[in-house]
């Protein structure tokens, strides 16, 4: 075909649009239950906003061009930098903590593949001005409830929890300098996906002497599954460097966060998992990703704390933590788990008439019924009753209202339940129609 949809972009036919709206409505309801308020930001931004702030992986995936005014611009690959700018600009007048959410389209020039497209929707949920782990607990709970509202549960998905703070402390004990920290973190983020030889080659650049013991420690760290093992691992490590106090204080944050998650009864959904590092450069504390329960497939959601980004962008200090859930992997999961709803795009009532002279009665009633909140359809060209009923059956429509000359003469219509075949005469006199019809629904 001559004009095809661009690779990685989707057209939404009505059924797909219904699914998208359904997901958005669940996302909105979850955000509302947690009193997150909605914001939005431009889809097109100055490219500078994303350069360095999001990390090299995302910058390589930008949809960017020079606009007619000579500005270097990019379609947003994520919401967080725009949001950080919005919050930073009002940092002094905002009531804190601020809890904001948004649902919007994002664009990344990735190789289109399962779970990854070039245009996708994200549900972004963020909290500002709260540095305690209560904010993380609130977000993790909201993320879990969003999945649950779509019919998914702990047998379907899990939240993998990790920590950039402990990652940095771990890397510091192996002598990684501040200036190399982001490069090594980015390597660690890819460690599970790239081959061992390539990893070794890149790591030797940063850890020339201690390489073997580093790998040994790394393999222990990624096996840690509970707070006791996490504690023992870091307490043993801390003898290598003078970071004992930092580690103890951080382990206390971990205990507090796990306690909070426990209080809400969500511990069954949480896995401690240090293979999670997160590709984005701005994270500073706890990070988490959601996956299918068996760990297969691409991430369903990702987030974490980013306490420096707003300062770096706007000069105003503001602690921040949030997550984004994507629609593409979510729809794949709902499909696999057979949780995709069936949408009824049919009218509540179809008004049938075989004679154009009766159209005016049907149209009058259509208006009354639509104003009462019903979905009403009638034919643009009248057709025989038999033809109408055949097509209504094919469309699986439940109820029809029949306008026959005989009935209309007495100001009546015939209500027909197409599933049971039952017919009832109903009066349309004196505005009775709506109430009469409700009796049969
Ligand atoms: P992210 O991990 O880059 O985080 O994206 C979050 C989610 O968006 C992913 O888990 C995935 O579901 C979806 N996603 C990302 N890229 C694609 C793609 N190419 N195709 C389909 N879905 C995709 C962020 O974007 C952070 N800004 C999240 C955040 C909010 N952190 C703090 N606040």
Notes on the structure:
There is one protein chain. The chain has 441 residues and is an alpha+beta fold. The protein folds into two domains: 14-336, Bira Bifunctional Protein, Domain 2 (BirA Bifunctional Protein, domain 2, 2-Layer Sandwich), CATH 3.30.930; 349-438, Anticodon-binding domain (Rossmann fold, 3-Layer(aba) Sandwich), CATH 3.40.50.800. The protein has 16 helices and 16 strands. An eight-stranded mixed beta sheet has the order 1-5-6-11-10-9-7-8. The chain has a five-stranded mixed beta sheet with strand order 13-12-14-15-16, with helices on both faces. A three-stranded antiparallel beta sheet has the order 2-4-3, with no helix packed on it. The longest helix is centred in the first third of the chain and has 20 residues, at 14-33. Residues 78-80, 108, 110, 116-117, 120, 122, 124, 126, 280, 299-303, 306, 322-324, 326, 328-329 line the site of histidyl-adenosine monophosphate (HAM).
